[in-house]
Amino acid sequence: MSLWRLPEPLCLASKSPARRDLLIAAGIPVEIRPADIDERAVSVPEGTRLALELAAAKALAVSRLLPGRLVLGADQTMSIGPTVIHKAANLAEARRILDLLRGRTHHLHSAAALARDGAVVWRGVDVAELEMRQFGDRFRECYLDAIGESVTETVGGYRLEGLGIHLFSRMSGDHATILGLPLLALLAALRQEGALEQ
User: Fold this and answer.
1) Secretion signal: which residues (predicted)?
2) What is the mean pLDDT of each run of 10 residues along the chain (198 residues)?
3) CATH code of residue 117
4) What total number of domains does the chain contain?
5) Can you say how many angstroms the Cα of residue 65 is from the centroid of all Cα atoms in its chain?
6) Which one, 46, 52, 90, 153, has the greatest CB density within 10 A?
């Protein structure tokens, strides 16, 4: 017997393996349909609002293609003080971002939005606080060499479920939020939408 009540799987408008794995571990069947949107075109200057807008834009883009389906869009942004940090375009930019973050605290804003028939039916966000340790230049270069070009695939240049864990001295917040999904709020929304057993 399954907790999932809909006849079709949840459509995930994201190619993030971490988000996919979180949903599958929670017993939610998933169909991956990455949204084709220009993330840089969404110009909101604040991390939480930007994450919400991007999540909604992804959910809506895919929802318009799949009538009647429940679509999940998700995004994560990073901020240090008032500055929003974006994914590095190359290795040199990743090095500058790591130099900016080391020894300091930053925030991850993980947002999700559910859409059906081209309309957002729910959106939510959660924030985690992470402190990057004060590592040396030699460690930084070893880290960058070990992860290679994948440093440009994630905001901040790290994946905590991999080698990125070595960068940190402290983390505060829900584990799923840190990985990119406000999972507890999402599960409540899916129950409200009738997609999960109450």
Assistant:
1) none
2) 93 94 97 83 73 95 95 95 90 96 96 97 97 97 95 90 95 95 98 95
3) 3.90.950.10
4) 1
5) 22
6) 52
